[in-house]
Records
---
Amino acid sequence: SLILLMAETKTEIISLLSDINREGISNVIAYLDKSDYFTAHCYHHHRYDGGLAEHSLGVYHEMRALAPELPDESCRIVALFHDICTSHMPGYDAVAHHHHGQRSVDLLDVLGLELHDDERLAISHHMHHVPSAEQSEQTKLWHYLHLCDRNNARE
């Protein structure tokens, strides 16, 4: 059932986040739990209760399958939080007025999560293709987040 799927998705996401040792991660986990992150839907795909969390988890699994050489912690962070701004919680909904990738980064900043430069770039620009002339080690995380986000959105 949908309720069981949402519960399993939540358990797996919390498990993936629980051993990340970063400043602010406990604030983000608390936000996920208090907001509608686990029950929200995406706007243009996965338009059903729990779709946002299921999509984010699917992006993570696809990133691990396509790019096992990428740091797992960075994959967890960018995949699970790239659309975090589409969840809602009173007091946090007006964090920023940018495009949604940057809004997600802004929300993570407000929550105090320590982000590496390549994670910040990947999340803020995940809707945009990485021009081949700009592809490098610094943009690898961005490239795979963009690719896996698009692939998963078609499922």
Note: The first helix runs from residue 2 to 18.
---
Amino acid sequence: NNVYGQNATHVGINIAGSSIGQNNTVHGNAGIGMQVADNGQLLNNDIYANTGAGITYTVGSYNISGVIAGNHIDSNAIGINGAVYSGYLGPLIENNLVYQNTSSGVVVTGIGAKLINNTIYQSVGSAIVVQASASNVTIENNILWSDLGSIVGVA
């Protein structure tokens, strides 16, 4: 699918439950490119030039973590944005290429979120921001680079 040009400040593609969003191109939307909740999966998508986050992960009806893997995410406000409340599970974020977002590469929330084998480059802003609501976060085997910001910041 090629999802672009949404003028409302909503989500280009919303994945929840056990659904999988795979092999989509999502770009040029006024708001979030893709959103995943519960144990949904976002796999191998090309997400760029959205005014909000490229991907937002959140929790719906169930406290089950999802998977964000193999995506190419660039030129959004935030590459991957956590919107999980304190006490809820964070996702597995692995093998993504995240770069040139205007604020941050990845913002982490939730319990037990895992960032593994990602490449994150920010010319401005932080590569990774771990929010105060996050706990037991694993950041392992990533390539991280920021020209004018923190590599890993804890808010």
Note: The CA atoms of residues 9 and 31 lie 4 Å apart.
---
Amino acid sequence: YPRSTIHKKVIMDLRKIKVVRTDDFDLIKNLHKEIFPSDQCIKHKDSNAYWIMKYKDEIAGFCTVSSFTPNTLYLERAGIVEKFRGNNLQRRLILTRERYARKNLFKKIVTYTKIYNISSARNLQKSGYELYIPEKEYADKDCNYWIKYLDQKKK
């Protein structure tokens, strides 16, 4: 899609983008509804952590994680508000959650993307994630599953 004026402004001021941890589940739910209006809303509060991405006084996006197994972190949801898309912000949210995983001694990270979500798949690939087949599917049938080993040793 064509870049709007805000895209050019955001690109020039990317250093002003801040990612901050939040405990405000209602804020996360509302962002989810705004960014993914046709997706089922997040219903639970059992995520280990939530972050929001801010540009000045505006919220540019959010992300969440939860513990999948004691050694595996699950990248739940991440979304960028439409006018901020196209600035590699999703990759920054991936890196934020990877830092969290390392700090909390997780050995690997898993997630999934819908097969038509090419931009998220590219961002995961560029961040070192690989396609894998889980022992038990944990998402819809039309999904690709991704994994990243944090200690670089595949188990």
Note: Confidence is low (pLDDT under 50) at residues 1-5.
